[in-house]
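so im writing up the methods section and need the Thymidylate kinase record in one place, dumping it here so i stop losing it
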Amino acid sequence: MTPFITIEGPDGAGKTTLIKGLVSLLKEQLTVPLVLTREPGGEPLAEEIRDIILDPTHTQLDPRAEALLYAASRRQHLMNKVIPALQQGQVVICDRFVDSSVAYQGYGREIGVEGIIAINQFAIEDHMPDLTIYLDLTAEEGIKRIKEQRSNEMNRLDREEIAFHERVVTGYRVANQKAGDRVVTIDATQTPEAMQQEALNIIKTRFPDIF
Ligand SMILES: Nc1ncnc2c1ncn2[C@@H]1O[C@H](COP(=O)(O)OP(=O)(O)OP(=O)(O)O)[C@@H](O)[C@H]1O
Ligand SMILES: Cc1cn([C@H]2C[C@H](O)[C@@H](COP(=O)(O)O)O2)c(=O)[nH]c1=O
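--- predicted struct ---
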């Protein structure tokens, strides 16, 4: 089976920027096809759920309803895009997956990790990523980047108070320590080019057979 690789990190850590550069490097070097996708979303119905979740006017969305919507979007995307691609021998790179729910809903919303893991086990069964690359940045730096460079595109989650984003970063770091070698951390204060090269090297070391 080809690998399922996820990219994680707090808002503004540089996931979108990293993925863009990494995908062009990978396309030159991989011997198998590559599918790039994202959560929430990645396929038509899941994208509709994304629009509901991230709409800045949906300020009344209940935290547990939000967690369930992320899990529903995840299930839909997993069944209709990720698993079929892996079965066809494609490498899947996904911008966010279940670790985001643990960090944002479990820690950020303070729902608790056990409940989030339970609803996500129902959603994903045993389909965990083979590798997760975590971009480590403080909440303050990530939100600063977004406010300075992308303030016209701030979604409902981006607009949360800084304490929420700090809990998200703490949550990621605690959860990563329990995840063993599935999660590899990259220092996201580096230049985009240095981060892309480091991510490429991590993937080459872990999955030499796809190059
Ligand atoms: N390594 C970097 N150093 C400095 N600025 C960066 C770096 N990578 C990305 N940026 C800038 O930070 C902002 C956020 O980057 P990007 O959209 O890639 O982050 P993201 O992790 O995808 O954010 P989100 O989770 O909110 O979608 C952008 O304006 C981008 O140009
Ligand atoms: C998958 C997932 C995402 N989130 C949050 C994280 C971000 O703030 C938004 C998605 O926006 P992006 O620009 O595509 O990163 O949603 C979350 O809270 N829980 C999740 O499971």
